[in-house]
User: Fold this.
Amino acid sequence: MRDRLIFTAQLLFTLLVAAFLVVPVVLSISAGVTVNYFRGISSGVTLQWVFQVFDLYADTILLSFLIAFATLAVTLLVGVPAAYALHVRGGLLSRIVEEIITLPLAIPGLAIALALLISYGGFGGFRRSWLFILVGHVVFTMPFMVRSVMAVFSTIDIKTLDEGAASLGAPPWRRFLDIIVPNAMPGILAGALMVVTLSLGEFNLTWMLHTPLTKTLPVGLADSYASMRLEVASAYTLIFFIMIVPLLVAMQFFADRGQKA
Amino acid sequence: MNAIVGHGASVHIEACAKTFADGTLALAPATLDIARGETLVLLGPSGCGKTTMLRIIAGLEQPDAGGRVLFDGVDITAVPIEQRNVGMVFQSYALFPNMSVAENIGYGLKIRGVARAERAARVAELVALTNITGLEDRRIDQLSGGQRQRVALARAVAIRPGILLLDEPLTALDAALRDRLRGELNRLLRSLGITTIYVTHDQAEAMELGDRIVVMRKGAIVQIGTPREIYFKPQSRFVAEFVGAANIVEAPVADGRLMLPGGVLPLAEGDTHPAAVAMIRPETIAIVAAEGAALTGTIDSISFIGDRQRVIVGGASDKPLTIDAPNTVAVTIGDRVGLSVAPDAIRLLPEHD
Ligand SMILES: Nc1ncnc2c1ncn2[C@@H]1O[C@H](COP(=O)(O)OP(=O)(O)OP(=O)(O)O)[C@@H](O)[C@H]1O
Ligand SMILES: [Mg+2]
Assistant:
């Protein structure tokens, strides 16, 4: 009897918390398809705001994905070998490098952006291109990739596996591709998931670094909240959701499969 | 079966020492020759530098300046492991979890650019040789310890290595399996006829597998010899006690006899030190009638082991003597017995160490 009571209370609490989190999402999305938010859903359902967002902000959506996947590519190409090198070398120097890579986690995005602007703001072409934002995103997401790959390395004896492959005649690059990468896959996938998610949703740093021609989705969203009808901004959120949720589900799916393999 | 591997290379190690970055001297300068086709066992307690020596031969560790490693007379000290054509079995096996059993065994051949069909044939040959038929498509985490050990061996042998290096390949297994695989491994290594260097801290393994045994202690080689030489003619107290059971007796010598508290034991001709540390193996002491015996003592304890009985006799020597007697000898605790030892079964050792 007492157990039942405790269970019911826990269930209620969980549902309440979930509702607290879900309700704003539902409201926001529904606002995006209402004719007039202040009159409520009774004013009618429409897709006009969604189309308007597409007209105004289609390029920000494209740019966001471009930057997210470019960030992923860079963090993979640099982060995975870096994680391997840091793990194998060990020692004080590796610890220091690891800490430096991790630093952007603790530093506010605004500060990173400011530093980038002070250092490279003078290079006009670079400053105006989306590559400038890419650099910011890489700095910000790199620790997630490096850390999650290193976490896998610490659970398997990667050094001995590498030596095993070497004894069979494999040169270093071959060992990296045949042995290191496949065995680090769970960490790489988990890292990739974080990198893409963080890059797509990143606002602080991007807001500082963007130009009118290099807006990403979250920056565009802020823009529309500030200058458009609430319905437009909500429709924007809706689009964000529709694009990112399937992507995340797909990546999670692959990450899980990688984990099992 | 002669096509499985060639006869391999000869190995010459010259003045190879190893000091690690933290200052640990893991290996004092060691010089060693290993003949083509020979099985050499590196034997010694934990931390004595066996793995370090093996890794220097493999190319996973560089010797300190001045050390050289030669395969078939060619200096390969600076050649990385992937170009040395050595087969290596690691203590943890180092099997690739991302590959099936067959892919593991075939990996070295794939690296060498061997065509798929030829590779498959070679893998099948090794699967049969190492008795793992039916497991080819398994993942590594679906194998038992003994099966992993076989896959690791098959993988190392598949590349027709010049030298096969094994670092305690049986240590991770339980005792019964270890005994069985030891015999199997012995037959396999003999049939392959390949130059093999085998690291172990288990003297029974060393005896069974080695053509010669290198006994190591604290980073130094203390004795090199055939299993019989190491067992019957240890050159130090350390070797005598590390390899097999040994009674170490400290006593003065007079008239070519060992003067013990319980009597005397005649020594072989030429053993004329004034005082001695002597080794007597338990199985070389015979229990005889007390009357007329040159050495007598009292039975302290008897443990029946099955194929023999272990008898502890007090009062004969400075310390109680351990005797392995046939299981048919009738003895009782408290009996006064005579002991006899053939003179050439008593081995005098240097006092020190
Ligand atoms: N990378 C290293 N850095 C510092 N010291 C090391 C390193 N590897 C081994 N040592 C030290 O060198 C000595 C010899 O080690 P080694 O691994 O060769 O011993 P071993 O005879 O194989 O022992 P075991 O039977 O326990 O495997 C030990 O004292 C060990 O602590
Ligand atoms: Mg070792």
Observations:
- The pocket of magnesium ion (ligand 2) is lined by residues B 50-51, 167 (CB under 6 Å).
- Chain B touches chain A at residues 58, 60, 80-83, 85-88, 90, 92, 94-98, 107-108, 111-112, 155-156, 159, 165 (CB under 8 Å).
- Residues 127 and 133 of chain B are 6 Å apart (CA to CA).
